[in-house]
Fold this sequence. Notes:
The chain has 2 helices and 8 strands. The chain is mainly beta.
Amino acid sequence: MRLSEILGKDVVTTDGRSLGQVHDVRLVQDGPVLPDWGAAFRVHELAVGRSSFGTRLGYGRGDVKGPWLLERLLARRPPRLIPWSAIQDLDAERIVVELP
């Protein structure tokens, strides 16, 4: 699976509630060891939310500082982090997750 197949997909819960779109993923490097590379990466979490531009610039994290006007305009609600283990179904149109 390629990252481009995940980014931008709609994410819904098992009861049909929309959570937004996938804007980013968090990776961990703990996969099998590859020659001349080291441990492989795997997807750990999906960053899901409604705003995209500010999230991609890092304003959703809270530790990014910039001009006050950009902070006001782009600092929306931080993205929701969905663990990869919560995914119940992944198809061409959407990702279905089960949240606790």
